[in-house]
Design brief:
Elements lengths: L2 E5 L5 H11 L4 E5 L3 H7 L11 H8 L4 E4 L2 H7 L2 E4 L19 H13 L4 E5 L7 H12 L7 E5 L9 H6 L4 E4 L4 H14 L8 E4 L1 H32 L3 H9 L20 H14 L3 H28 L8 E5 L14 H11 L3 E5 L5 H7 L8 E3 L3 H5 L4 E4 L5 H4 L2 H7 L5 E4 L6 H7 L2 E4 L7
Parallel strand pairs: 1-2, 1-4, 2-3, 4-5, 5-6, 7-8, 9-10, 9-12, 10-11, 12-13, 13-14
Helix pairs in contact: 1-3, 5-6, 9-11, 9-12, 11-12, 12-13
The structure holds nicotinamide-adenine-dinucleotide (NAD).
The site of nicotinamide-adenine-dinucleotide has 27 residues, from helix 5.
Protein name: UDP-glucose 6-dehydrogenase
Enzyme class: oxidoreductase
Keywords: NAD, Oxidoreductase
Length: 457
């Protein structure tokens, strides 16, 4: 029986390993993490984060061929194939601070693998890493287990799941990318990984490349997606200035088959733990290779995103007679996107901080994010003007304004007539996700701002 160990039980490691266990009943999958609290959450009824369909998959496999453990070394020792899904955040200090990937966690995982292994292993990069990381990892592994005569094959198998649709993305991926050495041992390792995916992924969706192409493709993938969001958001600013409507521009663009309709929704900006970090990593790699001009191109994607968030805050404050001081503003949504409880780099953080900076009082509701998460993200020590509440109506009671910051489906169907009655007048709505029917809201009496649309129509 093939044994797999997944190092890192986070948003990537947990769901990817659970789906492998589901689809490959003859493979034993152990997911390990240095965080005891994360592992005990995976072993409890309340998983460490919300992801649609995840609980069902975990419940089907846990206790059969899927286990979660903090005994990292034992399961690494026993495994034939090790998937490494540890975090690769942006360096906060030293050379490359603010741009380069911090590979501390990866390096310590590699050293631990070398220390405990006693047999040949395939080590799979699932984390997003800088191009040529496999070279460094290879050195760490082989130099640290020289005396044991162990051989490692390193593969790059970047993960393309999106939070909120992770299980669907894993069950039905549009592609699986496997990069490896092109010598006989490398090709053999690639084949072994292909054999696992072949349990449920059609052959024509499994792409194999060299290591560096696979590593770089993941960074390129996130950069292209984020660039598309910044492109439509840049257009949204121009729409507001000219009287064009961004939804109409998106529709027209999306019908061009060379462009396509996806990722063309204007919004308050992108968030999540990956886009910014991976683009800054790309910028750093460009600069390290003397390609400053190319790095500058990608940097603009981040700058437009920052601009979009600050433009939103500016619009809220200026619309409300240039001051929100002491005014209550209801915030609907704090997660970085719908169907996840993840708040990492959520645009809601910057918007809330911007409004608090102007002395607003916030009443925040998100269906999946906890009060503790919000307090942590807003560094709320000493901030008194924030209340985290249990439903949308409570968030809007006596509020002067309402901001939609996450596109949760439930925000489309709440009773806005009731919300209007709840609120101070004039009642403002700022739709940062363009999910509401502006005309209906205006009929009710709201003053409405939605991204990329003229203010008054
Ligand atoms: P995460 O922070 O949720 O999970 C990482 C886990 O690794 C943590 O639980 C941490 O305790 C554990 N860990 C760190 N060092 C360890 C070690 N030495 N041994 C055992 N466990 C260790 O991160 P994530 O969101 O799952 O992302 C992981 C990687 O996948 C990152 O490189 C990220 O860029 C990439 N990625 C993320 C997404 C996403 O949507 N979150 C999608 C694709 C790729």
């Amino acid at each position: 029986m093939v044994k797999i160990c997944g190092i890192g039980a986070g948003y990537v490691g947990g769901p990817t390993m659970a789906v492998i266990a589901l689809k490959c009943p003859s493979i034993e999958v152990a997911v390990v993490d240095i965080s005891e609290s994360r592992i005990s959450a995976w072993n409890s009824k309340k998983l460490p984060f919300y992801e649609p369909g995840l609980e069902e998959v975990v419940n089907q496999c846990r206790g059969k061929n899927l286990l979660f453990s903090s005994d990292v070394e034992k399961h690494v020792y026993e495994a034939d194939i090790i998937f490494v899904s540890v975090n690769t955040p942006t360096k906060i200090k030293g050379i490359g601070a603010g741009k380069a990937a911090d590979l501390t966690y990866w390096e310590s995982a590699a050293r631990m693998i070398a220390d405990v292994s006693n047999s040949d292993k395939i080590v799979v990069e699932k984390s997003t890493v800088p191009v040529r990381t496999a070279e460094a990892i290879g050195k760490i592994l082989s130099e640290n287990s020289k005396s044991k005569g162990i051989k490692y094959q390193i593969l790059s198998n970047p993960e393309f799941l999106s939070e909120g649709t992770a299980i669907q993305d894993l069950l039905n991926p549009d592609r699986v990318l496997i990069g490896g050495n092109q010598d006989p041992q490398g090709l053999d390792a690639i084949q072994k990984l292909k054999d696992i995916y072949a349990y449920w992924v059609p052959q024509d969706r499994i792409i194999t490349t060299n290591l560096w192409s696979a590593e770089l493709s993941k960074l390129a993938d996130n950069a292209f997606l984020a660039q598309r969001i910044s492109s439509i958001n840049a257009m949204s600013a121009l729409c507001e200035a000219t009287g064009a409507e961004v939804s109409q521009v998106s529709l027209a663009l999306g019908k061009n088959t060379k462009i396509g309709p996806k990722f063309l929704n204007a919004s308050v900006g992108f968030g999540g733990s990956c886009f910014q970090k991976d683009i800054m990593n790309l910028v750093y790699i460009c600069e390290s290779n003397g390609l400053t001009q190319v790095g500058n191109y990608w940097k603009e994607v981040i700058k437009v995103n920052e601009y979009q968030k600050s433009r939103f805050v500016h619009r809220v404050v200026t619309s409300m007679f240039n001051t929100v001081s002491g005014k209550k503003i209801g915030i609907l949504g704090f997660a970085f996107k719908k169907d996840t409880s993840d708040t990492r780099k959520s645009p809601a953080i910057d918007v809330c901080k911007g409004l608090l900076g102007d002395n607003a009082c916030l009443s925040i509701y998100d269906p999946r994010v906890t009060e503790h998460q919000i307090e942590k993200e807003l560094c709320m020590d000493g901030v008194e003007c924030v209340n985290v509440v249990g439903d949308a109506y409570e968030a809007t009671r006596d509020a002067h304004g309402l901001c939609i910051l996450t596109e949760w489906d439930e925000f489309k169907t709440i009773d806005y007539q009731r919300v209007y009655q709840n609120m101070e007048k004039p009642a403002f709505v700022f739709d940062g996700r363009n999910i509401l029917d502006v005309h209906k809201l205006r009929e009710i009496g709201f003053i409405v701002y939605s991204i990329g649309n003229p203010l008054d129509q």
